[in-house]
Structures are given as structure tokens and as C-alpha cells.
Write a structure and sequence with these properties.
Helices cover 40% and strands 16% of the residues. The protein is of the alpha/beta class. α3 packs across α4, α9 packs across α11 and α11 packs across α12.
């Protein structure tokens, strides 16, 4: 493909409208956000009840609007990956999530030679990986569990961290120029310094040269109780008549988070845990039983006395 044809193709894939934040995300921001009119197969589905935390949303929107590399860091269950997906869904921006588990290799990202059958003959053909495929499209690529990636994989990602970072495929003698509307995001439980708490086993320190390439590092942690109440009720509508019970569940979760911060607990209740607890309470018709099955059985036996005390304070019931 000639340079002129490539340019025409890229321009035809450009966002064709701009949006304002107040109607979509519930806060005003003096920026026009580029968006697409048509929804393609890679655009996430919209969750109409999703709650957007303003600061994290601004950071993510800056990534889309200004081509900033954005890392969203925070505790588990806070909706970091979903937050990016839901922003992309409202912009009709194609989005792909890649979980950087131990099975993701360099060849998964870059590509490999594969043997194919063509016209009755076996031929060797290069099959590009997710990274060159995404780079050449208007695509938001999200690396989940970024702090759990293998070192050889992380150095491949480092190549494209610059805003105009090109990817060189040595096996193909080819250099891929990023599409003007390619965007890069990542989520992590730590901030690249490793995990000293033991809560996130499998994470590791990240090369500080690579951390320095992230233009924006946003933090998404637990919501204020009233906001968390809205989130839980939006997911478990059947509990809308039992708001006091949900408030007690959230108060219980807050106590476990404070206990974790103070070093009294090693297991913490995330918003996801509260939602699971509410759903299980609907299934079993018993809040205490649902709590045992959702959270208590995951905890260290030596800490269950503390957790039972928290439960009694919130529900005035002996667990």
C-alpha cells in the first residue's frame, strides 16, 4: 500500500464527531472528546447504570482525546478495566482487553510464523499478534494486570509506549507506524514497585524506565458509601426495598478496608464482593449465610473473630 493510500485509509477511520462530558459522564469538562458515529464489533456494550468517578474518567478521556498513555491503578474490584471499557463504549471507540497473565508470551503480542494450507500446498505465513494488529487500527488496547506481565513481554510493550512509538518486526523487516487514533491503556493493582502486603501475589516491580513512559497514572479506589450504594442497587435491583441492609453491607466492607489499612486483616471486601454478597442474599434468603459463603470462608481463620466483631457492629447479630 502506498503512503497516500495508507493516509487515506487512516483518515477514513478517524472519529467523525465530538461529544461533551456533562451528558455522558455527569460532570463538566471544557474539552471536546472525539467519538465515532457508528458502532463496530469491538466496541464494548454500554452499561447504563455504570458510575463514573470524575477524576479517573478525566484521565481516561485525556487518553482518548490527546493520545496520552494512561495507567489506572487501584485495589481489586474497583472497576478499573470496566471504567476504561465504559468510556470507550460511550465514544463508540473499539476496545480490546489483554490480560497479561503468565501464559501471554512475546509471540502472542508480536506474532509468529504459522504453517498454512493454500491451494493444496503447505506454506509458511506470518500471523501478526495483537500488538501490530491493534497498532494499525483506531483501537484502544487495554493491558489488564499490567504489573503481572513477564519481563520479556513488558519490553515488547515498552517499544510502543511513546506517543509516536513505532513497532519494528525484525522477522518481517517491517516497521509499523501507529494509527493516529490508536490508544494505549493499562490497569494494575500496584504502582510498579511490587507488592509488600502479600495481597497481590504474582505481581512484580516494573522497570522504572517503562513506568516513566506512562503520561498519566490515575488512581481508582473505593467509592464513598452513598456512591457505592447506588452502584450496588443498580446491579441488584431486587434489593432496592432493603436499602438499610445494603448500607449495613457497605459499612461492613468499609470496616474490613480500615482493618486492612491498619494491618489487622489480610483480606478486604471490594465493591465486587458487596455485589456478590447482595446477590447471594437474594439467592439464599439469608444475609448471614450469604456473608459466610461470599467472604468469611475466604478469610484466615485467625482473623474471623475480628470479622465477626465487625459484623455484629453492623448488623447487631452474632455471626
Amino acid at each position: 500500500m502506498t503512503k497516500a493510500a495508507l493516509k487515506d485509509t487512516m483518515e477514513s477511520d478517524a472519529p467523525d464527531k465530538t461529544l461533551h462530558t456533562d451528558k455522558l459522564f455527569g460532570f463538566k469538562w471544557n474539552h471536546q472528546i472525539p467519538a465515532f458515529s457508528t458502532k463496530t464489533e469491538h466496541v464494548p456494550e454500554i452499561d447504563p447504570d455504570y458510575h463514573f468517578e470524575p477524576d479517573a474518567t478525566r484521565a481516561i478521556l485525556a487518553g482518548f482525546a490527546h493520545n496520552r498513555r494512561v495507567l489506572v491503578q487501584g485495589y481489586h474490584g474497583t472497576g478499573k478495566s470496566t471504567h476504561i471499557e465504559q468510556v470507550a463504549a460511550r465514544l463508540n471507540w473499539p476496545c480490546i482487553r489483554v490480560n497479561l497473565d503468565s501464559h501471554i508470551s512475546r509471540t502472542d503480542l508480536v506474532g509468529r510464523d504459522v504453517i498454512m494450507l493454500k491451494e493444496g500446498k503447505q506454506i509458511t505465513q506470518f500471523q501478526e499478534g495483537i500488538l501490530p494488529w491493534s497498532l494499525s487500527r483506531p483501537m484502544a488496547l487495554v493491558f489488564d494486570e499490567y504489573d503481572a506481565g513477564r519481563p520479556d513481554v513488558m519490553f515488547v510493550i515498552q517499544r510502543v509506549m511513546e506517543a509516536q512509538g513505532k513497532l519494528t518486526l525484525l522477522d518481517q523487516n517491517r516497521v509499523i507506524t501507529p494509527h493516529p487514533y490508536f490508544r494505549l491503556f493499562a490497569t494494575s493493582n500496584t504502582i510498579g514497585l511490587g507488592d509488600s502486603t502479600g495481597l497481590y501475589h504474582g505481581t512484580q516491580p516494573i522497570n522504572q524506565g517503562q513506568m516513566d513512559r506512562w503520561n498519566i497514572v490515575a488512581t481508582l479506589n473505593y467509592l464513598p458509601p452513598e456512591d457505592e450504594l447506588k452502584v450496588v442497587l443498580s446491579k441488584v435491583r431486587e434489593m432496592s426495598k432493603n436499602k438499610d441492609t445494603i448500607r449495613s453491607m457497605i459499612a461492613m466492607a468499609q470496616l474490613t478496608r480500615e482493618g486492612f489499612m491498619n494491618g489487622d486483616l489480610t483480606t478486604v471486601m471490594s465493591p465486587r464482593t458487596v455485589i456478590n454478597w447482595a446477590e447471594n442474599a437474594q439467592i439464599f434468603g439469608d444475609v448471614a449465610l450469604a456473608f459466610r459463603l461470599t467472604f468469611l470462608n475466604k478469610c484466615d481463620e485467625n482473623e474471623r473473630t475480628i470479622i465477626a466483631e465487625y459484623y455484629q457492629r453492623c448488623f447487631n447479630v452474632q455471626l
